[in-house]
Amino acid sequence: MKTANQKRINIAITAMGGQGGGVLADWIVSMGEGAGWLAQSSSVPGVAQRTGATVYYLELFDHTETKAEGLGPVLSLSPASGDVDLVIAAELMEAGRAIQRNFVTPERTTLIASSHRAYAVSEKEAMGNGIADSESVHTAAKEMARRYISFDMAAVAEQTGSVISAVLFGAIYGSGVLPFPRTAFEQAIRDGGIGVDKSLAAFSAGAEHSQSPDDSVQMQAAAVVEKIPCWQYRGDDAEVKALLHSIKQDFPNILSDTVMEGVRRMLDHSDLRYARLYVERMQRLLELDGAHGGDDKEGRHFSDEVVSRLALWMAYEDSIRVADIKTRSHRFARLYQEVGIKEDKVSYFTEFLHPRLEEVAEVLPERMGRWLLRTNWAGRVMTKLFAGPKKLSTQSLPGFLSLYLVARMRPLRRYSLRDAIEQQQINQWLQQLEETLSRDYKLACELAALPELIKGYSKTRERGLRNFNILSAAARSLCGKDSAADILRELKAAALKSEKGSELAVALSRHNLAHLLPSEIGVAKAATAEIAVQPCAE
Predict the structure, then answer these.
(1) Would you give the distance in Å from CA 365 to the centre of its chain?
(2) 504, 538 in Cβ contact below 8 A?
(3) Which of 443, 452, 465 has its CA nearest to residue 518?
(4) pLDDT tens-digit profile of 127-143?
(5) Could you give the CA distance from residue 481 to residue 538 in angstroms, rounded to a whole number?
(6) 90, 15 in Cβ contact below 8 A?
(7) What residues contact residue 423 under an 8 Å CB cut-off, 6+ apart?
(8) Angle, in degrees to the nearest 10, between helices 484-495 and 441-448
């Protein structure tokens, strides 16, 4: 809390592009000026992750006494170490960066940060799990800040249909750091004139949660997972609720939440039939897990490994899904709110696309898509018409319709070439899991984790799928041998070290499995090869 003789308040806001950091700064300035204070705001934008991680610096000065004396303050344009009263981070790692910059000090600074993660480029580009440790940031924040307020503000923003900046503004009020009444905060939102009702709801929720323990927020965030209908699903809610009810009955508590999230993804990706297929596959694997692993702690490990990876693989991203996401109405509403533009104003959003011939062919019926890929003249024609770099404005009728029509192909996805390829590969993996589970439980657990290699799109996905196929073949060769699980884990770690695959080649040679590594010509083919499933070696 500010004492009566403290006339200057220094505030640093760290936020990524699209999180409304500029809007939040404007609200604080408007509120300060409305109270008769001097207010100054400056910002240093970043260059990555849309508009990057921007630092906004604000100074508020109560010049009631100095104004009467004809004096004025000299305000700074950037934060100084040990001279910041309030640090606001719209994402957890931004709080960590603020601590590294010495913006946060135990004697002075209140730190308000959302506990959710928006992964950095370095985390996303890692071939394995490159996610930074969140707990270490929480520990440092508690040690370095005079007061630390943190909860999942992204979940609260989603619940209220607003953006995170409004929740942060509510948390600022709840912290009591700024000496302004609630009416002044709310008036600043009204004066902004954009998404006022939803922003006020998010402000109120943020103020409430800033004085509540984290667990209550997490419980409410968990309720979002069970929200039905989910995302873009327009089917029968009763059937979905019946499916969720069966999940709670048929799956142990440790798995049920993850399975429900998987169902949520299947509904958003395809339809109820696809969600049921996911549940049926998981029920089959859970039965096998119980039969071969028992109900002890280790017996649940296989199901834990497979439940999320199966969901992520089944919810693969194709051209239809990309077009679907880019044409959703709530996406446009969010973009308008993020950039601070009223929906009745003229604006243009440009989508940068670079489809390849393979991505054009994958949305076609299976036979037609295969014919297109093997017919040179047809491939050249389709490449000229649809492939290559493109810029589309979704605010123009031709640009929007081109994506909208692709998105409307969603009911036809099950007949597409891409779906045929993906389902065949998933079925081969599941069949190998069943065969391995009956002979080597630990190896099956490692095999269940292999889809982690498959990520991204285009060439990145091809390389990941190539390594997945190599390691699946290695698992067949190792099945029944001593230390098979340890060797497969070692091979996976080697595959995740680099894209070139040199470490994997060395590891394969060390275990006499070099014959599984394809030649340079075979490497490209291995990414889409339809490998026949072979039983474990006796």
Answers:
(1) 30
(2) no
(3) 465
(4) 666 677 788 889 999 99
(5) 10
(6) yes
(7) none
(8) 20
Among 277-286, 378-387, 484-493, 499-508, where is mean pLDDT lowest? 499-508
Q: How far apart are CA 76 and CA 206, in angstroms?
A: 29
Straight-line distance from the first to the last Cα atom of the chain, in angstroms, rounded to the nearest whole number = 72
Q: What are the structure tokens assigned to 285, written together?
A: 């694997």
Q: Which residue's entry shows tokens 């500029």?
A: 22
What is the rounded CA–CA span in Å between residue 224 and residue 241? 14
Q: 3-state class of 301 per DSSP?
A: helix
Residue 525 token pair: 């083919």
Dist CA 55 CA 148 (whole Å): 19
The first and second tokens of residue 97, run together, are 């960066």
- The C-alpha atoms of residue 41 and residue 12 are separated, in whole angstroms, by 10
What whole-number distance in Å separates Cα of residue 191 and Cα of residue 108? Answer: 31
| φ, ψ for residue 361, nearest 5 deg | -70, -30
Which residue matches tokens 């291995």? Answer: 526
Q: Which two tokens stand for residue 505?
A: 């080649």
Instruction: Report the residue count for the chain.
Output: 538
Tell me the C-alpha to C-alpha distance, in Å, between residue 317 and each of 53, 189, 322, 463, 472.
27, 38, 7, 16, 22
Give the helix/strand (H/E) hosting 532.
none
68 strand-pairing partners: none
Mean of pLDDT over the chain: 82
Residue 474 and residue 86: Cα distance in Å, rounded? Answer: 55
Whether the CB-CB separation of 159 and 225 falls below 8 Å is answered with: no
What is the C-alpha separation between 472 and 460, in angstroms, rounded?
A: 18
SS3 assignment for 442-497 = HHHHHHHCHHHHCCCCHHHHHHHHHHHHHHHHHHHHHCCCCCHHHHHHHHHHHHCC
The string of DSSP letters for 377-441 reads: HHHHHHHHHH-S-EEEETTSHHHHHHHHHHHTTGGGGGGBHHHHHHHHHHHHHHHHHHHHHTT-H
Q: Is the dihedral of CA 278, 322, 304, 255 positive or negative?
A: negative
Q: What's the pLDDT at 230?
A: 45
Residue type, 134: S
Region 173-202: mean pLDDT is 90
User: Rounded distance, CA 427 to CA 420, Å?
Assistant: 11
- For the question of whether the overall pTM of this predicted structure is more than 0.85, the answer is no
8 A C-beta contact, residue 454 and residue 464: yes
DSSP state of 365: B
Alpha-carbon distance of 341 to 192, in angstroms, equals 11
Label the pairing between strands 53-61 and 147-151. Answer: unpaired
Domains and CATH numbers, the chain: 8-225 (3.40.920.10), 439-538 (no CATH)
pLDDT reported for residue 496? 87
Q: What is the pLDDT of residues 291-340, one digit of tens each?
A: 876 544 444 488 889 999 999 999 998 889 988 888 887 777 767 766 65
